[in-house]
Amino acid sequence: MRPSPDAPVEAVLVLRTLGAPERRLLRGRRGRTIDAASPEPVPTSRATLVAAEPFGGEEEARDWLASLRREGDRADRELDNAMRRLNRALHAQRAASADPSASDVSAAQALVVRIGYGSGEEAAEGRFAEAWELPRERRRTRRSMEAPEERFAAILSGRELPLAGEELVLRARADLDAGRTREAALEARVALEALLAELPSAEGLADRRGPVGDAANAALRGELGRELADALTDAVEAMEQALKRRRLSG
Asked: Which residues on adjacent β-strands are paired with residue 132?
């Protein structure tokens, strides 16, 4: 994987499907009649990201893994980088297959997350010389729209309708977290206009029009610079805070 044709390789992505049913066991075209909905075994996918640069030796690799276990922030950054690269691959698949249902994933959705080291052949087979399996609490989504169960029930029952801007802000956030700043800028412009119409009294949102517009215009021409990317991030956070205040006041 590399971000551009001239950039160095960042990582190697190895994808495996585990537990796939044999083709001879797949159902025919006509289906079958049933009287109970029994659970069906499902395959799982394993994604392994192998760093392009090798360690200087086993001692260096062991020290690296030990430091991740000691320093939670370093482990979080390692996991964030891995998820960003995996979602870049899913974005490529979505574009290549023209399939809008192929969505990004988060670490919280994974059955298991492991960080470790070993030979390239070991990693490709899901084996390690040594590895650390992250506890599930470390993988919870840190950013949330915080909708309580009561609101979930209200939306499903039709007693409340979510704002159009809510979905648009979520899409802008997903693009930002995945490193797709151009897409995030374009999403954010539409999201901001929707929220200004739906929440006209929201404090501070109107002031974001200029920076978000500048970021979106720059996105049409190419990649955003650091200053515009930071302004875009601040604007998306402001929109998230406006939505949070609305939920808490409701």
From this structure: 115
Residue range 10-24, pLDDT digits in tens: 888 888 888 766 555
SS3 127: coil
76 Cβ contact list (under 8 Å, min separation 6): 138
User: What is the distance between the alpha carbons of residues 211 and 189, in angstroms, rounded to a whole number?
Assistant: 10
Q: Encode pLDDT of 166-184 as tens digits.
A: 999 999 999 998 889 999 9
Q: How far is CA 233 from the centre of its chain?
A: 16
Residues 8, 48: Cα–Cα separation, whole Å = 19
Specify whether the CB–CB gap between 65 and 128 falls below 8 A.
no
The answer to whether 79 touches 47, Cβ cutoff 8 Å, is no
Judge whether 40 and 100 are in contact, CB under 8 Å: no
Whether the CB-CB separation of 92 and 143 falls below 8 Å is answered with: no
The candidate with the shortest Cα–Cα distance to 15, out of 79, 68, 92, is 92
Is the pTM of the predicted complex or chain greater than 0.70? yes
Using H for helix, E for strand and C for coil, what is the string for 158-186?
CCCCCCHHHHHHHHHHHHHHCCCHHHHHH
Q: Mind listing the pLDDT tens digit for each residue in 37-61?
A: 777 777 888 999 988 888 999 999 9
Amino acid sitting at position 74: R
Listed in sequence order, the residues at least 6 apart from 87 whose beta carbon sits closer than 8 Å to its beta carbon are 104, 105, 177, 178
- Residue among 173, 185, 181, 184 at smallest CA distance from 243: 173
Cα–Cα distance measured from residue 1 to residue 37, given in angstroms and rounded to the nearest whole number? 42
H-type helices in 71-163, by residue range? 72-97, 120-124, 149-156
